[in-house]
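The data layer described in this paper is built around a simple, fixed record for each protein. Because each token names a local backbone shape, the row as a whole describes the fold. We quote a single record here, exactly as it is kept in our systems:

***
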Amino acid sequence: MFIKGGNTSSVVSQALKELYVLKKQNSVTYKRKNILRPFEDETPLEFFAKKTDASLFMFGSHNKKRPNNLVLGRFFDFHILDMIELGIDKFVSQAEFPGGKCPEGTKPCLMFAGETFEQDVEYQRLKNLLIDFFRGPVVSQVRLAGLEHVIMVTATEGKILIRNYRVLLKKSGSRTPRIELEEIGPSLDLTLRRVKLASDDLYKRSLKQPKTVKPRKKKNVSHDAFGSKLGNIHMQKQSLDKLQTRKMKGLKAQKRKSQSEARQSSAKRSKGVDT
């Protein structure tokens, strides 16, 4: 969910609006101003989370002490799990980038660059939070032509740079196309400010999945190339002599006829012996 604070600048409002477009199908935005202070009082945010059944939020505000402020966070059991405050140093809108845009609801490819994301605990949580925020639905396979949107996050010199690109597939003279990236916006230069992280125990507890959610592996069941379901049945060794077959009238009549023919042939043989 995207929430406006009591006082917002044009930069914050436009950033919230364009980031909401990237998540439009799976998010909700509050256009009215809400006087909230997430790091001082978490109760209003938890109320909104329970009301909209949301697990992630982005809150935008602006004041003299913290200008152009964004707060990203997530919930666990409708309580704040962790929050990270970011300051917008530079913002470039989508309207300033010429060319086409990616359609709404496109699943993005997320890329992270910078050693800080691997070394610093706060940046590791920020990376994990951004993945939860932008990844979209979980899929097992992605078609090459369906990979249209790339979100690049770079950590360098104490800043976090977020860039959005559109993937262009060009002719290369072979089966594998030549790939080019065209920047489409929005573009943000961010600075890390206040951070509130969950404890290690609470964070591990939030990662646990209930047993009902985990898919059970079905033994001896497989699918062929056409999608047909195949199953293996394990049985004991059977004796074909004792195998009970289906009784049919046609088989019974044929059996009686063969028995009468056998009797007639035996009678002829006995007459020949007497003569």
Q: What stands out?
A: The mean pLDDT is 85.
